[in-house]
Amino acid sequence: AAGDAHSLALKCDGTVAGWGTTPQASVPSWLSNVVAIAAGYYHNLALKSDGTVVAWGQNTSGQTNVPAGLSRVVSLAAGGSHSLALQGDGTVVAWGYNDYGQTDVPPGLSNVTAIAAGWGYSLALRSDGTVVAWGYNDVGQTMVPANLRDVAAIASGFYHCLALKRDGT
């Protein structure tokens, strides 16, 4: 996973290695049993095998304040200064910077199978192969094409989104 000036690697033993020129590269020494990682602009997330989340790094907007009671997490995404967690029931929890609505999860969003986070926006892939986007939209990054269907995977960059369709396109 890559942040602004730091990178993370998940090791086979469930620990995380960090490197780079920012303090966010410093991984908590006690962190273990990690199954997934995400790097934001200046913060990081780790998903532990018990479904809980650990966050560290810059916390100017609450992006490392993991909501109390958050559990049953199956996937993570770290944006510019916000964080997303996908729970096992297909719902999304968001926290951190919200000036653009990137943590305002759309009402009724369910059946989510994947999440991604960009600079000031968030994405969710639903089990029916459709994509939902919300937050900052200065260059059209949350304007999901009306005919986009049969999506298998999503990804986000600083100001752009990608969708891999089930047919490989």
Task: Spell out the key features of this protein.
single chain, 169 residues, mainly beta, three-stranded antiparallel sheet, globular
Question: Which class of secondary structure composition applies to the elements?
Answer: mainly beta
Element order: H for helix, E for strand: EEEEEEEEEEEEE
Strand adjacency order, main sheet: 3-4-5
Mean pLDDT: 95
**How many H/I helical runs?**
0
Flag low-confidence runs: none
What amount of the residues lies in strands? 35-45%
Share of helix among residues? Answer: under 10%
- What is the global morphology? globular
The major beta sheet can be summarized as: 3 strands, antiparallel
Structure description:
It is a single chain. By secondary structure, the protein is mainly β. The protein has strands at 6-10, 16-20, 34-39, 43-48, 53-57, 73-78, 82-87, 92-96, 112-117, 121-126, 131-135, 151-156, 161-165. Strand 9 (112-117) and strand 10 (121-126) form a beta hairpin. The chain is globular and about 45 Å long.
Architecture blueprint of SSEs:
Blueprint: E1 6-10, E2 16-20, E3 34-39, E4 43-48, E5 53-57, E6 73-78, E7 82-87, E8 92-96, E9 112-117, E10 121-126, E11 131-135, E12 151-156, E13 161-165
Antiparallel strand pairs: 1-2, 3-4, 4-5, 6-7, 7-8, 9-10, 10-11, 12-13
Q: Briefly, what is this?
A:
The protein is mainly β and 169 residues long.
